[in-house]
Structure formats: structure tokens, C-alpha cells
Amino acid sequence: MKIFVVGGAGYIGSICVEEVLNAGHQVTVFDNLSEGHRSAVDPRAAFVQGDLANYAEISAALKAAVPEAVMHFAAASVVPESMVNPSKYFHNNVANAIHLLDAIVEHGIKKFVFSGTCAIFGTPERVPMTEDLPVRPLSPYGQSKAMVEQMLRWYDQIHGVQYVSLRYFNAAGASEKFGEHHRRETHLIPNVLAVALGTKDHVEIYGTDYLTPDGTCVRDYIHIIDLAQAHILALQCRQSACFNLGCGDGYTVKQVIDTCRKVTGHPIHAIERPRRPGDPPKLVASSKKISSELGWKPRFNKLQDIVASAWAWHKTHLNGYPD
Ligand code: UDP
User: Fold this and answer.
1) Is the beta carbon of 276 within 6 A of some atom in ligand 1?
2) Domain count within the chain
3) Is residue 116 domain-resident?
4) How far, in Å, from the CA of 101 to the mean position of ligand 1?
């Protein structure tokens, strides 16, 4: 298939592009490079630098590429940033998604794969989290993604755009070539590995008084290659659907840091700090629906393997990407 990937120069997008190409599809990447890196775009893909905020740019790029499906990764995705700058999240994630969906309708494209998030659920009443839990986001980030899912239902019903929303839990790890390089890093695993690499002095633990086994937040870490595979399976899905996408295992922040100590052989100095606004205590996926309906199965479900792949990439890309 011809696949058009919006945000294909970012961390998740770039590795999905690589896997989609490996599966034999053709890819055009559209990215404004605000967060992404030109050198993170697989050289087998065509590249268009453009901005979703500009309707003419996205419309012209889709017209030229004539894709059968669009994957949409371009979004702001940092929960704490959204707690201080909601406007950025509603502009980037909601208003720009309307441009993309309208351009898809204009050019008659019928398949859409969306980067959803478990943050739409806020603090869930139970874990593992199934798809039918109430949508009650705790942050503008989670709210913005929930709003796009709501819009998608109407674009499907009215315009016949069939969609799959993959609600990511915590994406982590790397492929051999591509990895996680945010210009301002907020995520746990790269921050911990930066201490092992010597580019940071210590890592901060946000909150040690949660009702969890060691008082720190529990998250479900999914290897980026397994996450990418779900996108390839989503292309085969014949009806619109939302899937929670995680491995089903929860690890505390302290367990993640310990795993990083084991993998890197570095002591990793950690300092305990107060809670970070917008963080639910425990997020763990049920992968039942995606495994039974799409046949998805993680290949790397041990945290140690996920961290080891990230570590291998960071050691060979000490400053991340050059651009
Ligand atoms: N976290 C932390 N120190 C950091 C970064 C994150 O203690 O330097 C915690 C954060 O509060 C959350 C968990 O690690 O409980 C995962 O955070 P991350 O930002 O990686 O992903 P999120 O779950 O927010 O999408």
C-alpha cells in the first residue's frame, strides 16, 4: 500500500515508518520538523516538509502522494507541558487534526490510523484497562486526544473515513537505526539512561506517596517495534475501532530505574521529588481486544529487553540525531 505518515520524523513515527517500509509498503513522510529530525526519516521514504497548521500544504502533499492510508503521529505529547500550555495542545492536536481530516476527505482517502493515548482515561477505576472504561482525561493532552477520537466517529459516519485509534501506553526502546531524541526530554527511560551516559547528574522521581507497591507510579512499557507492528495490523482492520496498546505488565518508576542500573551497570543517582501534575498512579493495558481482533502479540515484553534496545541506541548516538 501507499502510506502517508504525518509526523514520520518523530520518535514513534520514524520507527513506524521503518517497520511499514520493512513490511513492503511505500511511504511518504510529512513533518514540520518542529519536534522531529530530518535524519530520523528512513531514506527509503519520500519526505515533504510541511505544516498541518497550513491547510494548503497538507492538501497539496496528499494530492501529490495519492495514498491509500494516512497514519497520524504529529502531535504534542508531554502531559506536564499541557498542564501549563493547554492552547498548544488544542491547536496542535485538535485544530491541526481537523485540517488533516478535511484534506483526507477532500482527496477521497478512506483509511486513517491515529496515535491515541491511555491518557484519555485519566485515573482508571480498574487495571488492566479495557477499552470500555469511561473517558475522563486529567490533562489537556489526554483531552485533546479524546476530542480527536470523538471527531473521528463523525468523519467515519458522514464521510466514510475508516479509522483505527491505537491508544498507546508508554512507548520505549529503539530499533537499530532509530531511537528517542526529544530536544527537551521529559520521559523516564531516556532521562534515566542520560545519567548512565553521564550527560545528566541524576534523575528525579516524581512522587513517592502513590498507593502502589513502592509509592511510585506504575506504567506499562511497550517496545516501539511492537507498537509499530500494531500500525501495520491496523491497516488490515476492516472497521473503525479503538484499541488499547500496551503489554499488560506494570512497572514502578523505581523498578524502571533499577532495570536501567542492571542493563547499564551504572549506579544512577536518583532524587525523590513531589508528584508531577497530571500523572495518574497506575496505567496498565489490557491487550485482550487488540490480540483477539488484530492478532497483535508483543515480541519484546520484558522491560529489560526494552531498556537494552534503548541503551544500545543511546550509546551509539550520544547526542541523539545531528539535526
Ligand atoms: N517520571 C519520573 N522522572 C522523570 C520522568 C518521568 O519520575 O524524569 C515518572 C512520571 O512522573 C511518570 C512515569 O515516570 O509517573 C512515566 O513518565 P513519562 O513522562 O515517561 O511518561 P507518561 O506516563 O507521562 O506518558
Assistant:
1) yes
2) 1
3) yes
4) 31
C-alpha cell at 76: 504534542
Q: How confident is the model over 23-68, as pLDDT tens digits? A: 999 999 999 999 999 999 999 999 999 999 999 999 999 999 999 9
Average pLDDT over residues 305-312: 98
pLDDT greater than 90 at residue 257: yes
SS3 labels along 86-111: HHHHHHHHHHHHHHHHHHHHHCCCCE
Residue 188 Cβ inside 6 Å of ligand 1? The answer reads yes
Q: Is residue 90 part of a domain?
A: yes
Residue 206 lies in a domain: no
| Residue 25, all three cell numbers | 509498503
- How far apart (Å, rounded) are the C-alpha atoms in residues 302 and 247? 9
- List the catalytic residue out of 11, 55, 89, 141: 141
From atom 15 of ligand 1, which residue's Cα is the shortest distance away?
Answer: 217
Q: Is the CB of 185 under 6 A from ligand 1?
A: no
Please compute the mean of the pLDDT values over residues 218-244 and round it to a whole number.
98
Q: Would you say the pTM of this structure is higher than 0.90?
A: yes
How many angstroms separate the CA atoms of 119 and 146, rounded?
9
Domain that holds residue 16: 2-172+221-245
CA of residue 107 to ligand 1 center, whole Å: 39
CATH number at residue 117: 3.40.50.720
Mutation to probe ligand 1, out of 81, 184, 206 (largest number of atoms < 8 A from CB): 206
251 in any annotated domain: no
Which residue has cell 466517529?
Answer: 153
Is 55 assigned a catalytic role? no
**Residues 6 or more apart from 180 whose CB is under 8 A from it?**
11, 172, 174, 187, 189, 190, 224, 310, 313
- Measured from the CB, is residue 219 less than 6 Å from ligand 1? yes
